[in-house]
Specification:
The chain has four helices and two strands; from the N terminus they run H-H-E-E-H-H. It is mainly alpha-helical. A two-stranded antiparallel sheet has the order 1-2. Strand 1 and strand 2 form a beta hairpin. Helix 3 packs antiparallel against helix 4. The longest helix is centred in the middle third of the chain and has 23 residues.
């Protein structure tokens, strides 16, 4: 037997109440979802919640990285000049090796973003 036929006039069934509340709940849920600024859409429509800082964030001095970039450019230019020479003396070959070593050093310094906290030595 259908219970909706036996319902008293003036009283709604549970399904009737739910049917009236469902559009309002959906509306407010969607309103909250699209108006909340803490959720940002990232690439490929993935949710992306970013944290600006923290113990494990990368910490590198921007001025040190800029300085390393300048030193890298200078060393690279000098190394390429020595490398492009046709006839090199033993001193030139030695200088070329030293400059190549400096180029690798400064390239590592300019690309270094900093240590993670968890990678640092932590005691005994």
């Amino acid at each position: 037997m259908d219970n909706s036929l036996l319902a008293l006039p003036g009283r709604e069934s549970k399904s009737g109440k739910i049917a009236k509340l469902l559009p309002a709940v959906l509306f407010f849920g969607l309103l909250f979802y699209f108006s909340n600024p803490s959720f940002q859409q990232g690439e490929n429509n993935r949710m992306k919640m970013e944290k600006s800082s923290g113990r494990n964030g990368k910490h590198a001095n921007p001025k040190a990285r800029q300085s390393a970039e300048e030193q890298y450019q200078k060393a690279k230019e000098a190394w390429q000049q020595i490398k492009s020479r046709a006839n090199k003396s033993p001193e030139d070959k030695k200088l070329q090796q030293e400059l190549e070593k400096q180029v690798k050093h400064w390239e590592k310094k300019k690309g270094w973003k900093g240590d993670h906290h968890s990678q640092k030595h932590k005691g005994n």
